[in-house]
Amino acid sequence: MxxxxxxxxxxxxxxxxxxxxxxxxxxxxxxxxxxxxxPKEKLLPVTQQLAEFGLVSGVVSEEYGGLGADWLxxxxxxxxxxxxxxxxxxxxxxxxFGAYMLEKLASEAxxxxxxxxLVNGSRFVSIxxxxxxxxxxxxxxxxxxxxxxxxxxxxxxxxxxxxxAYSDVLICTCRTSDExxxxxxxxxxxxxxxxxxxxNIKKVALNSQSTAQVFLPEIVVPAHNMLGEKGEGLRxxxxxxxxxxxxxxxxxxxxxxxxxxxxxxYAQERVQRGKKIAGHQLISAMLAEMATQVDAARLLCxxxxxxxxxxxxxxxEAAMAKYFACEAAVKVTRQAVQIHGxxxxxxxxxxxxxxxxxxxxxxxxxxxxxxxxxxxxALTGVNAx
Length: 385
Ligand SMILES: Cc1cc2nc3c(=O)[nH]c(=O)nc-3n(C[C@H](O)[C@H](O)[C@H](O)COP(=O)(O)OP(=O)(O)OC[C@H]3O[C@@H](n4cnc5c(N)ncnc54)[C@H](O)[C@@H]3O)c2cc1C
Hints:
Elements: H1 8-32, H2 40-53, H3 71-84, H4 86-105, H5 108-119, E1 125-128, E2 144-147, E3 151-162, E4 169-175, E5 184-190, E6 197-200, E7 211-222, E8 226-227, H6 233-269, E9 271-272, E10 275-276, H7 281-309, H8 315-339, H9 351-360, H10 368-380
Parallel strand pairs: 1-4
Antiparallel strand pairs: 2-3, 3-7, 4-5, 5-8, 6-7, 9-10
The chain binds flavin-adenine dinucleotide.
């Protein structure tokens, strides 16, 4: 891997985090629960310890009990989790951005009640936007929130909701009026008081975490559980995407970095035609291409994180990071399988699982095609979306 500039503090934090991940997380996700759902009771000690390293807590300001780390440091810490487990990284990502949304949008009463548990890793959140007929086009959301005065009645169905099965809290985007762009509003649902129904979805990979359908069968939620202003849901979602896309891209960087790490190790050990396969020029070329892709993806992510930290608009740069890193992870993991030969398609090695995980990442938080359209719009000023 190419050189990364880090402060002494960042280097120390990453070193202790990666030792913890190797000792506590890798056995859980790669041995005990490889490809199967990790129960919440196994997860809680991990998320609580991660909070001490700055995961989730890092994106929340000190005023609200977080560590208030800068976005580049948060990005570096998060990438390290993804290097060990993309399942766990996705869970941390959603909890982080759920906590971030609460800090930005919730009333003091909701903040006091829900933010501490998210910051210390003892409670989990889901963010529900997508629906069976609504993916790339968020403005078509159909789930309804009907006002009855003091309450809203929520009805509809959400799908692909990360953390669904684990969630204690759901941040749900619903339609409060027929106006496409100005008719969306966020609500906070507490699973113990507003029992939304959850059904896990089985996928090609990332089954050690939860991606779920969420059903809203006429759920009564107090009006004071609204997050942000009525009708501001789309604006707040788009602002969130600029940040969260960089973290999905970092999931891809983590996967690709791990695949490269495994491939380098394998190429140094495996002997064919009397020499280590690293000594075959075509293997060396593949490794060089993989390493360059990984570094380019990583640097795009770090640039977007630094722009966010500097309060600059990073819509195009976040889209570039998401697009490039997720497509790079697909290519790099495929090459890692190829370098492993037959061993690469067995469950005795990591790379087959990394390749399956990489396939998923160009889809959530805006597909690769949507990122291309965002980049194109930023370049030309013409909206092809
Ligand atoms: C693992 C996983 C986790 C997820 N987590 C969450 C979550 O926590 N919360 C949540 O709300 N959602 C979540 N999602 C949903 C995700 O955001 C959507 O799947 C994504 O936005 C794409 O929507 P879709 O699947 O409906 O595909 P569609 O929008 O139907 O797209 C199908 C194809 O058409 C293309 N396409 C669509 N529109 C256009 C266009 N205008 N121009 C060109 N091509 C286009 C797409 O690129 C894609 O190739 C998750 C998805 C996955 C797979």
